[in-house]
Amino acid sequence: MTVTFNRPDIIRPPSEHASYYLPLTSGCSNNSCTFCMSYGVKLQIRDLPDVKKEIDALALFRQHEVRLPGIPDIVYYIAREWDGRHVFLQDGDALVYPFPRLKEALQYLQQKLPEVDRVASYATAGDILRLSVDQLKELKDLNLTLLFMGVESGDPEILKNIRKNATPDELIAAGRRAKEAGITISVTVILGLGSIAHSERHALATAKVLTGIDPDFAGALTLTLVPGTPLYDQWQKGEFTLIDPFQSLAELKIILENSSFTNCFFSSMHASNYLSVRGTLPADKTKMLRQIEQALSQHDPNQLRPEYLRGL
User: Fold this and answer.
1) What three-state secondary structure class fits 64?
2) Rounded to an integer, what distance in angstroms lies between the CA atom of residue 277 and that of residue 167?
3) Which of 13, 87, 123, 301 could disulfide-link 95, Cβ–Cβ 3.0 to 4.6 Å?
4) Which residues contact 297 (CB under 8 A, 6 or more apart)?
5) Distance between CA 205 and CA 299 in Å, rounded?
6) Are 120 and 88 in contact (CB under 8 A)?
7) 3-class SS at 267?
8) DSSP letter string over 87-139?
9) How far apart are CA 28 and CA 45, in angstroms?
């Protein structure tokens, strides 16, 4: 019996706005994270011939503006907005796609669209650690040169409570393995995951994991509760307390103060955050901390992003 592959909605990092979104999977293999909109969404693995069919259609449209019958309209809509060089593999962790098939898909993409010079994907720590350094190097040689990994927190108890299915040591090992293979690693952390009770502990432990990974890029988000997730239910029952906007800034300050990077672009520009700061660390550390400290000292809500403008 053939199972129809359900093309996922486009959920991608902000930096991938000009990429072509090529689904290899739908959903997430680690669908247990209590804060995530993918909670409970079953993972689907797309058939490789179907992936190749989409690559064929994309190449033909790119070269001759020809549309093939049976290809979803979304393919051509994305193609018209595409920069022609970057591809983002969907969905929540496309690196879970079986290694031989992933290699074949990347080889086919390279053959049909040789102008593509960078492929990116979300990846869980487990996805990365399942592959050897040599396997990751093979993928890197096929232009998979950027992985986005959610760290969320560096605290073992918080990671356990949110069902991340990764320990701080595993997160560090995964980030280091990707870097050893020559793959650029971009990580995200979530302010507020420790609630008010464990806010400082969460921030300090997260800084420690960031230092251990020493990523090329790091982004901070502020927790936004999603209805239907276990964490949302815990909040409604009074079992989880959200930090306020200025407590999120205090966490961000602790993370920046206690992290050590070789050369990392760090940003809190995501729409979920109350204050946007960005810069290269360690070069811009003093400037970024000064921005946060000024906002904390003024304690003026009007200087922060209002709730109605925050989003996922």
Assistant:
1) helix
2) 28
3) 123
4) none
5) 26
6) yes
7) strand
8) EEEESTTGGGS-HHHHHHHHHHHHHH-TT--EEEEE--HHHHHHS-HHHHHHH
9) 10
Strand pairing report for 144-152 and 184-191:
parallel
**pTM: predicted TM-score of the whole model, two decimal places:** 0.93
Q: Which of 51, 40, 53 is nearest to 89 (CA)?
A: 51
121/13 Cα distance (integer angstroms): 9
3-state secondary structure of 148: strand
Tell which phi-psi region holds residue 192, choosing left (phi > 0), alpha (psi between -120 and 50) or beta.
Answer: left
Local confidence pLDDT in tens for the 312 residues of the chain: 456 888 888 888 888 899 999 999 988 887 888 887 776 678 889 999 999 999 999 999 998 888 988 899 999 999 999 999 999 999 888 999 999 999 999 999 999 999 999 999 999 999 999 999 999 999 999 999 999 999 999 999 999 999 999 999 999 999 999 999 999 999 999 999 999 999 999 999 999 999 999 999 999 999 999 898 989 999 999 999 999 999 999 999 999 999 999 999 999 988 888 889 999 999 999 999 999 999 999 998 888 888 767 766
Give, as one character, the DSSP assignment of residue 244. Answer: P
Domain positions in the chain: 14-299
Dist. CA 99–CA 106, nearest whole Å: 11
Q: Is the peptide bond before 282 cis (omega within 30 degrees of 0)?
A: yes
Which amino acid, one-letter code, is at 156? P
Residue among 131, 136, 127 at smallest CA distance from 94: 127
Do 240 and 199 contact (CB within 8 A), yes or no?
no
| 274 within 8 A of 248, measured Cβ to Cβ | yes
Give 14-299's CATH code, choosing from 3.80.30.20, 3.10.450.50, 3.40.190.10, 3.30.70.1230.
3.80.30.20
Q: Residues 207, 154: contact at Cβ < 8 Å?
A: yes
Distance CA 145, CA 13 (A): 15
